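User: Sorry, folds how?
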Amino acid sequence: MLDVYSTSSISKNFSPPTASPPPSPAVSRYELQKRRDWNTFGQYLKNHKPPLILSRCSGANILEFLKYLDQFGKTKVHNCCCPFFGHPQPPAPCTCPLKQAWGSLDALVGRLRAAFEENGGRAETNPFGARAVRLYLREVRDSQAKARGIAYEKKKRKNNKRQYFQEQEKEGDGHSTVV
């Protein structure tokens, strides 16, 4: 049975919804990782002896941070004097250090570079984009590739449109299209 008092009180107190912001979409995995990395870097600055402030950070401080992260790495990087240096799949364990993989460092720097600018930093003063950082990443990439015995080769971009039309021509449907 419908309660007359409750429906009338609802209609009296009801006001149409105001323009509220639409529900925010779920935060992407990238955004979560970027936030976590930014917080980790902030914690590093706070715990640094002497403590560092973001506005005074340079490329040298970023390199120090990246080298600090090596202690948490999981990638075996053979030293040049190791018998397994240059072997992609060594047959036995060795005492070479574990370090951060180049790809992980490269992605981390990219996320922190973006986070710096999102948090009010100017692109021109972004320490994550410093020349020293780029050179360090290149050196890490090359040294890790040599240690594994695999030369790093930049992936070539495919032109999907051209590939699609080439496949269409091979099928020989009688129609030729020039792009």
About this structure: The longest strand covers residues 75-76. The first helix runs from residue 4 to 13. The CA atoms of residues 2 and 8 lie 11 Å apart. Residues 1-17, 173-179 have pLDDT under 50 and may be disordered.
